[in-house]
Design a protein that fits this description.
CATH class of the largest domain: Alpha Beta
Shape: globular
Radius of gyration: 23 Å
CATH superfamily of the largest domain: ANL, N-terminal domain
Largest sheet: 9 strands, mixed
Number of domains: 3
Pfam families: AMP-binding, AMP-binding_C
Helix content: 25-40%
GO molecular function, one term: medium-chain fatty acid-CoA ligase activity
Number of strands: 28
CATH topology of the largest domain: Rossmann fold
Number of helices: 15
Keywords: Ligase
Family: Belongs to the ATP-dependent AMP-binding enzyme family.
Strand content: 25-35%
Protein name: AMP-binding enzyme
Distance between the termini: 41 Å
């Protein structure tokens, strides 16, 4: 496998760097089972942490780089992270400033020394940063850890590596939680290696050589599993066009590296097709690609095939809890036929479409989609109740999506049983946003829903009822501004509607009818002609 990082002129062909970093972690005193957080975008160092933790028996914790301080604090505490690897800043976001707010002791540390003792985060012992020329207070330099191991550390690594089992946890991904707090989805070597290999097999990667363009974030499974591990399993070349998503850099990568296989969510492909740069880009090298993360409209698929040259495009469906892919197009389908549904169940996986009583429905009828197999997560870290809710004793995972299965076995996703909002491939549960807005002293009630968005699939909309003494004094803009720094940018409402109690549609038992809120919101926001990616 070859990895090319255009933004850093970095090229790597595996092997020694990951082993050196793994031994460096051991030299710091980290042990198998320890959680190592990586907080950042698509950096070369990110991939080294992924491989180093895997071969040393440690567990990588993917932390969304858009997390604000309160979200970061929760992510570190929930799974008791022992070491945090991170850049210092990217564009307008200063990671160190946010870290100082969570762990003030770091700012008072010795330059070049990342050892840490914190009362609030007693398990966090090391801060490791990259991208700085001068030593930072309270932080180890990444390159020193990479090159600091001794012979004994490598011998320990050899011993540890020989004892790793397929069902050992290797990765924790945070998913949106129905209770408002993210759930720590725990995945094993068995989950990730099988899923990555099978997704490549379905796309004929075992027969063809590709230069992959991977702009998708590594902190999601689509990037780090279907992207990186898939390329590793099938010895493909993987090109990272930029640290964070930039349309112009994707076109640059396609031209400079002659990329043949593209990755993207529907929103990313909409952006590519809408960009004036597309007409200036030589797309003749492109042969195919993956689209996942949100439902892909047929009309968008047509344009991907005809205008982006993606004659061998594959639609995939899954979730973080499924490592992630469980359904995918097949190569024996015609290019456009693949966009009529999300494909067929992956090899060695099982699907069930069931009614509200858990009984399998006849083909063609709607029901909730359940899945199980090698890809099913171990569970949610330190959350037995959440695990039992989403995962049955016989290992069926409840996706929360409504689906139908056609006579030929292909599957269509037709809606959701959960309230989750899917914005540009980011899954958001309304509860988390509602809980934050409820904290504002002027808010009496808030209800959050998803509304259609041409580009993102869905956008966040909040219905807010103000306390009597604040009526006429607080604007939607005030509420949106107050959310900044409290919620990740993708969770901040695009629309805020300030309403009276009588405006909220209620059930007889006093619950808000969120489906009716969606209908009303479309009317009030004049979104009637806007097409979501979802076929609800």
């Amino acid at each position: 496998m070859v990895m090319i990082f255009i933004h850093s002129a970095q090229e790597t062909r595996n092997g020694n760097p990951a082993r050196r970093l793994a031994a460096g972690f051991i030299a710091l005193g980290l042990k198998p089972g320890d959680r190592v957080g990586v907080w950042g975008h698509n950096y070369y160092e990110w991939t080294l942490v992924q491989f180093a933790t895997a071969i040393s028996g440690m567990i990588q914790v993917n932390i969304n780089p858009y997390y604000q301080p309160n979200e970061l604090r929760y992510a570190l505490q929930k799974v008791e992270v022992s070491a945090l690897v991170m850049p210092t800043e990217h564009k307008h976001f200063n990671y160190m400033t946010s870290l100082y707010e969570v762990v003030p002791q770091v700012a008072g540390g010795k330059p070049g020394n990342g050892s840490l003792r914190s009362r609030d985060l007693p398990d966090l012992h090391h801060i490791i940063v990259f991208g700085e020329e001068e030593p930072l207070k309270g932080a180890w330099d990444f390159n020193e850890i990479l090159n600091g191991a001794g012979a004994l550390d490598f011998r320990v690594l050899d011993s540890v590596e020989s004892k790793i089992k397929p069902d050992d946890p290797v990765n924790i991904q945070y998913t949106s939680g129905t209770t408002g707090l993210p759930k720590a989805c725990t995945l094993t070597h068995h989950n990730l290696l099988n899923n990555s290999y099978m997704t490549g097999l379905r796309a004929n990667w075992h027969k063809e050589k590709h230069v992959i363009c991977l702009p998708n974030p590594l902190y999601h499974t689509f990037g780090c599993v279907v992207g990186v591990l898939n390329a590793l399993s099938h010895r493909q070349t993987c090109v990272f066009p930029s640290i964070s998503y930039e349309v112009a850099r994707i076109f640059d990568a396609i031209q400079e590296e002659k990329c043949t296989f593209l990755f993207g969510t529907p929103t990313m492909y909409i952006d590519l097709l809408s960009s004036p740069l597309m007409k200036q880009c030589d797309l003749s090298s492109v042969r195919g690609g993956y689209v996942a993360g949100a439902p892909c409209p047929y009309a968008l698929g047509e344009r991907m095939v005809n205008e982006l040259n993606m004659r061998d495009a594959y639609v995939a469906y899954g979730s973080t809890e499924l490592s992630p892919a469980v359904i995918m197009s097949r190569s024996d389908q015609s290019p456009l036929k693949r966009f009529e549904n999300v494909g067929y169940v992956m090899p060695h996986c099982e699907l069930a479409i069931v009614d509200e009583h858990g009984q399998v429905v006849p083909r063609g009828e709607r029901g909730e989609l359940w899945a199980r197999g090698y890809m099913t997560m171990l569970g949610y870290w330190a959350d037995e109740i959440g695990t039992r809710k989403d995962l049955t004793r016989d290992r069926w995972y409840h996706t929360g999506d409504t689906a139908t299965m056609n006579e030929d076995g292909s599957v269509m996703i037709v809606g959701r049983t959960k309230e989750m909002i899917c914005r540009g491939g980011e899954n958001i549960y309304p509860t988390e946003i509602e809980q934050q807005i409820h904290k504002f002293p002027y808010v009496a009630d808030v209800q959050v829903i998803g509304v259609p968005d041409d580009r993102l699939g869905e956008a966040v909309c909040a219905w807010v009822r103000l306390r009597d003494e604040f009526k006429g004094k607080i604007s939607p803009e005030n509420i949106i501004e107050a959310c900044k720094g409290k919620l990740s940018p993708f969770k901040i409402p695009k629309y805020v509607l300030i309403k009276e109690e009588k405006d909220f549609p209620m059930t007889a038992t006093g619950k808000v009818k969120k489906n009716e809120l969606k209908v009303l919101s479309k009317e009030l926001l004049h979104l009637g002609n806007v097409q979501s990616h979802f076929n609800e």
